[in-house]
Specification:
The chain is an alpha/beta fold and 358 residues long. The chain is built from 15 helices and 10 strands.
Length: 358
């Protein structure tokens, strides 16, 4: 005889398994509407979605029978909750066929204790895009609040998220992991501000759509500064701007209007020089105002030869590396203390959730 139990499941796509500029295709236009749609799946009773610039995470609670699941490739597996969640996710987003074909390899799926562990690591800050940053913790709090108001969460997820928020707050306070958090973007933008001044009158260009570029974009967003974003393809720039920010433009257009920018951040993963003397000589040689270029790429993608052009001031990642590495080290030293608390609290949280199941 089969018993009915509660199944807590977390399906997610994050910056760890696909590039930032690809995440926009997996994101939901309206998270509240998406939660309602997932709740329409037969068997799903609760849903909360955490969506930030670096992750999309769906948490569901469903009633399942304690029998062996059939092979997902067989016809009878179409009714499985997980398959229905994947199908619903595809229907609510703008995924291309290649993304759909590789969907099973892209998403991560967690159940029970692994879900609780993931939430504790997120809430504490050790799995954040920037270690200790408040962004994901704040999103956990807001997602719970919105789900409660909309009625998409219930007894199980409400209790889970409330426990995680309480434990995460304690971990952040006692370990100091959230104190004085500085990202690569914060340091880079501060350096540029000190050297050239950053305000709403300055025209800013961001070249790149990877993790370093996302950190710069987030800091610019925080300062409410507008900026253009470009990459080797307009599709990448558009995907990046959709989920992170900025105004996407074609790379060739960026080069042809290079003289219009006062500040240029370069943060790419190219293994060759994107910006060379010859590529910008004609457009820059008549420029009257100065241009500050900060190349954060590793290896460098801006040729030092452009310094010969009038008005160009060129800075490199080396000039902020020491500050950045000190910040990373200070947070890395705290991680073991956080992990120790999680190791102690996870079994307790798991036991509480099992009592709810009963």
């Amino acid at each position: 005889m089969n018993n009915i139990i509660f199944d807590v499941m977390n399906t997610r796509v994050t910056f760890k398994n696909i590039p930032i500029h690809e995440l926009s295709k997996f994101a939901f236009k309206d998270v509240g509407v998406a939660c309602e749609e997932f709740k329409k799946i037969p068997g799903i009773d609760e849903c909360i979605i955490i969506q930030t610039a670096s992750r999309i995470e769906i948490f569901t609670v469903s009633n399942i029978e304690t029998i062996d699941s059939p092979d997902a490739r067989r016809a009878e597996a179409k009714t499985l909750i997980l398959n229905q969640v994947k199908n619903k996710w595809i229907s609510l987003t703008q995924l291309e066929q290649i993304d759909i074909d590789h969907f099973d390899q892209t998403i991560e799926v967690y159940k029970s204790d692994d879900v609780y562990l993931n939430l504790l690591r997120l809430g504490s800050g050790i799995d954040s895009f920037v270690i200790g940053k408040h962004e994901v913790f704040d999103e956990i709090v807001q997602s719970l609040s919105h789900a409660k108001s909309a009625g998409t969460s219930g007894t199980i997820l409400n209790k889970l998220f409330e426990n995680v928020i309480r434990l995460s707050t304690r971990m952040r306070d006692t370990t100091g992991i959230a104190k004085d958090v500085i990202s690569l973007g914060d340091i880079a933008v501060k350096l540029v501000d000190e050297k050239a001044g950053l305000d709403s009158k300055k025209k800013i260009l961001l070249i790149g759509t990877g993790n370093s570029a996302a950190l710069i974009a987030k800091t610019l967003n925080k300062k409410e500064l507008s900026y253009d974003v470009t990459s080797r393809t307009l599709e990448r720039a558009t995907g990046f701007s959709t989920i992170v920010g900025g105004n996407p433009i074609n790379f060739d257009d960026a080069l042809s209007t290079f003289d219009k920018y006062d500040i240029i951040f370069v943060a790419t993963t190219a293994d060759y020089f994107l910006i060379t003397f010859e590529r910008i000589r004609l457009v820059m040689e008549e420029k009257k105002k100065g241009t500050l270029i900060l190349d954060l790429s590793d290896p460098r993608t801006v040729d030092e030869g452009i310094s010969a052009l009038p008005g160009i001031k060129l800075l490199f990642r080396d000039q902020i590396t020491e500050i950045f590495e000190e910040s990373i080290k200070s947070k890395s030293d705290v991680i073991p203390a956080v992990e120790k608390i999680i190791e102690k609290e996870l079994p307790i949280l798991s036991a509480r959730m099992k009592r709810l199941d009963a």
